[in-house]
Design goal:
It is a single chain. With about 500 residues, this protein is mainly alpha-helical. Helices cover about 70% and strands about 0% of the residues. The chain has helices spanning about 5-15, 20-30, 55-65, 70-80, 90-100, 105-120, 130-145, 150-160, 200, 205-220, 220-235, 240-255, 260-270, 275-285, 290-300, 305-315, 320-330, 340-350, 355-365, 370-385, 385-395, 405-415, 420-430, 435-445, 450-460, 465-475, 480-490. The longest helix has 17 residues, at about 105-120. The termini are far apart. The model is unreliable at about 1-40 and about 165-200 (pLDDT under 50).
Length: about 500
C-alpha cells in the first residue's frame, strides 16, 4: 500500500510537520505504530534514600540489557516489598512492559494483571497514560491469538471510539422578570474553541486506550474495523479529534477497496484542518486511479491553499498518465495563485520522464509570469539530458527573452549536461557584457580542462578589461596548475 521513502523525503522538503511526521516515518519503515509515549528504558532513579531504590536500579539495568525475565521479577519485588516506595507505582508498569517484551501468552496475561494492579492501587501514577496504551497493545496481541476476552475488550473499546459522547444538556436561559419592548435579540452562542494540539488532546488514559484498540482491531480484522473507523470519522465532537486523525491513518493502511472514497469524504468535510490534510496525504499512498481522481477533484473544488498544495504533492507521488494529466492541467490554470503553480511545476519536474520534460518546455512559451518561467528552467535542468541542455542554451541565446531569464538558463545549462564545447563556443556569439560575465562564471564552475583554457584565453585576450578581471578572479580560485602559470604570466608581462 505504501509507496516507499520518496513520500517521506518530499514531505520533509515541503515542510509537512505536526502529527504527519511520526505517521510518515511509521509508514516508510513498516514498524508498529506506537501508542504510548514511554521509552524502552525507565527514567533514572530520582529519590535518594528510598527503600526501593537499589531494587529499582537493578531492574532498570536488567531491562537496559534486555534481560526481560529478570527485569520483570525485580520490578515485581519493588512494588511487593516496598508498596510505599516512590518507585512502586511505576514499577508495576515496567513489570508489565518487560512481560510484554517476553511475548508469551502467560506473560501477556501476567502483564495485564500488573497493569490492573497499578490502575487500582495507583490511579495517579505518572505512567498511567502509557499503561493504557500498553494494555491496548497487549489485548490486541492476545486477540490475534484467539483469546475471546481480549477480542471482546478490543471490540468494545473500538465501538466506544465510534460513538460520540452525549452532548451536555444546555442550560435553560433565565426568563426576564419584565420583558422590555425592543430588547436586543441574544447573540448566537460562539462556536466551540479550536481543540488544542494533538499531543495535549490525546494525553489522557481514555484516548490512549481507544487509539490502541482501534489499532489492534484493524490488525485483527480489517473487515470488522472498517465500519467502526467510518463511524469514528463521521463524528464531529471535539473529543474525537485524535481518534479521527488516527482513523485516517488506519484507513489508508487497509488493502481493501473503498479507502479512496472514505479519505476523499474526510478531506472534503472534516472540520479539523489537519485531519483534512492527513486525508489528502494518505491518498498519495493509495496506488489506484480512484485515488488520483479523488485528488484531482480536491484540486478542482477546494479554495484552501494549503490543501491544494498537499494535493499537488500527493498527485506527484503517482506515476500514471492520469496523475500527469491532472498536474499538467493544474500548471496551466492562469487563475491560480502563482506560488501554488510554482509548486506544481516543481513536482512535475521531480517526477521526471519524457512526457513531463516535453510538457515543461512547451509550457515555458505559454507562461507570462517571469517567476514561473524561472521555475520551469530549474525543473528542466534537474531532469538532465542533452535535449534539455540544448533547450536551455537556446533560451540563453534568444535575445527576445528577458536578460535575467537568459542568464538563469545559461547557469542551469552549465550545471546540467551541456557540453563544455557548446558552452565555450557560445562566448564568441554572445554580445553584451552581462551575458559574457555569466559565461565566465559558468566556466569557473566546470571541472573540464577546456573551461580553464577558456578562462585563460579571456584573461589574456578579451578586449573588455572588466571581463579580463572577472576571468583572472576565477582563475585565482582554481587548483589547476595552468591557472597559476597564467596568473604569473600576467603579473610578469612587460
Amino acid at each position: 500500500m505504501f509507496r516507499g521513502p520518496l513520500g517521506v523525503i518530499a514531505a520533509a522538503a515541503m515542510g509537512l510537520g505536526g502529527s504527519w511526521a511520526p505517521a510518515i516515518q511509521t509508514a516508510a519503515h513498516g514498524v508498529e505504530v506506537s501508542m504510548g509515549g514511554a521509552d524502552s528504558v525507565p527514567p533514572a532513579p530520582w529519590v535518594r534514600g528510598d527503600p526501593g531504590d537499589s531494587l529499582y536500579r537493578a531492574a532498570r539495568e536488567a531491562l537496559d540489557r534486555r534481560d526481560y525475565r529478570k527485569a520483570a521479577d525485580l520490578f515485581a519485588q519493588v512494588s511487593a516489598r516496598y508498596p510505599t516506595s516512590a518507585y512502586a507505582a511505576d514499577a508495576l508498569y515496567w513489570r508489565a512492559f518487560s512481560l510484554y517484551r517476553l511475548g508469551g501468552t502467560p506473560q501477556l496475561r501476567e502483564a495485564l494483571q500488573s497493569l490492573a494492579a497499578q490502575r487500582q492501587g495507583f490511579p495517579q501514577a505518572a505512567t498511567r497514560g502509557d499503561a493504557a496504551a500498553l494494555e491496548g497493545r497487549i489485548q490486541g496481541e492476545l486477540g490475534r491469538r484467539g483469546n475471546p476476552a481480549a477480542v471482546a475488550y478490543v471490540d468494545s473499546v473500538a465501538q466506544r471510539a465510534a460513538a460520540p459522547p452525549m452532548p451536555p444538556r444546555p442550560a435553560r436561559p433565565a426568563r426576564p422578570a419584565m420583558p422590555v419592548p425592543g430588547s436586543p435579540v441574544p447573540p448566537t452562542p460562539p462556536a466551540p474553541p479550536t481543540p488544542p494540539d494533538e499531543d495535549s488532546q490525546c494525553a489522557d488514559d481514555e484516548a490512549d486506550t481507544r487509539l490502541a484498540a482501534l489499532n489492534a482491531l484493524q490488525q485483527m480484522d480489517d473487515a470488522r474495523a472498517r465500519p467502526i473507523l467510518k463511524r469514528v470519522l463521521a463524528r464531529r465532537d471535539p473529543a474525537s479529534l485524535c481518534l479521527r486523525r488516527k482513523a485516517v491513518f488506519l484507513i489508508a493502511q487497509e488493502d481493501a477497496a473503498g479507502a479512496e472514497e472514505i479519505l476523499l469524504e474526510t478531506a472534503r468535510t472534516d472540520p479539523d484542518h489537519e485531519v483534512r490534510e492527513q486525508a489528502v496525504f494518505w491518498l498519495s499512498q493509495v496506488d489506484t486511479d480512484k485515488a488520483v481522481a479523488a485528488l484531482d477533484s480536491i484540486l478542482r473544488t477546494t479554495k484552501d491553499r494549503s490543501l491544494q498544495e498537499k494535493a499537488v504533492f500527493a498527485l506527484s507521488q503517482h506515476d500514471g498518465a492520469l496523475a500527469r494529466q491532472s498536474l499538467h492541467g493544474y500548471a496551466e490554470r492562469a487563475e491560480l495563485p502563482e506560488e501554488t503553480r510554482e509548486k506544481v511545476i516543481f513536482w512535475i519536474g521531480q517526477q521526471g520522464g519524457k512526457d513531463n520534460e516535453g510538457f515543461l518546455r512547451t509550457l515555458y512559451g505559454r507562461l507570462k509570469e517571469e517567476g514561473l518561467r524561472e521555475k520551469v528552467l530549474f525543473s528542466v535542468s534537474q531532469a538532465g539530458g542533452q535535449d534539455n541542455s540544448r533547450w536551455l542554451l537556446g533560451i540563453a541565446r534568444d535575445s527576445a527573452q528577458p536578460l535575467e531569464l537568459r542568464k538563469k538558463a545559461l547557469f542551469w545549462a552549465g550545471q546540467s549536461d551541456a557540453s563544455i564545447n557548446d558552452l565555450t563556443a557560445l562566448y564568441a556569439s554572445t554580445p553584451g557584457r552581462e551575458m559574457r560575465e555569466q559565461l565566465v562564471f559558468v566556466y569557473s564552475q566546470r571541472d573540464e580542462p577546456a573551461a580553464v583554457d577558456k578562462l585563460i584565453e579571456i584573461a589574456r585576450k578579451d578586449p573588455d578589461p572588466e571581463l579580463r578581471k572577472k576571468a583572472l578572479f576565477w582563475l585565482g580560485q582554481s587548483d589547476d596548475p595552468r591557472a597559476a602559470k597564467a596568473l604569473q604570466d600576467v603579473i610578469e608581462q612587460p
